[in-house]
């Protein structure tokens, strides 16, 4: 992916800068307990910071314990906890969820952000690639979230589930990463149908290219990108949208997939159709 990004940089060489609006520190999530999988860097870390700024107590999970603790040290240790949890391992879900409850006391908001990407297609995808992508992006989040959903119902918590999908789940492709993100979209809608009667909401964000390691660039680099908007999306922009979807501000929104890609997946008619 880095090689591709460098090529694009030469092809679309102009520098692109973007001004984004962000919410100020407040109390939108006061007294709420938020769990974010894959929360030590990128989109997950940006969402964690945003939730903390709005009064939430946050727990982030991930495979790399060093990265987890580095993030916690960089923010308020009183407001963030860490849990070393490989979400692809379904055998530890009950154990890890108990640790979550022991640390936070309860869970109000569950954000599925952990995921992996492999730059493969129909001719290069190996069975190992397929298994890694599907176990991390689908199998683990599916069974972990099912546990969370049952917890919300049992404890009569009007919880919120937010899934991080991708625009690749909508467009044609042979990379199983896109397949996994399409499944997340369907799962989001299914959860909304089945859990809505309990007051539990489920929504998803489908970002376009985001300034993360997957895209080969970070927020501090050039944001030019060959998409409809001409740029990468920043992690902070995704975090702002995530805040809206998990906060009471969006109480009427359920079962929706919000594309955060400047319209990149809009079907544009070719030629004059009028």
Automatic annotation (TrEMBL):
SUPFAM superfamilies: NAD(P)-binding Rossmann-fold domains. Gene3D superfamilies: NAD(P)-binding Rossmann-like Domain (3.40.50.720). Pfam families: adh_short. It comes from the Bacteria. InterPro entries: NAD(P)-bd_dom_sf (IPR036291), SDR_fam (IPR002347). Belongs to the short-chain dehydrogenases/reductases (SDR) family. PANTHER family: SHORT-CHAIN DEHYDROGENASES/REDUCTASES FAMILY MEMBER. This is SDR family oxidoreductase.
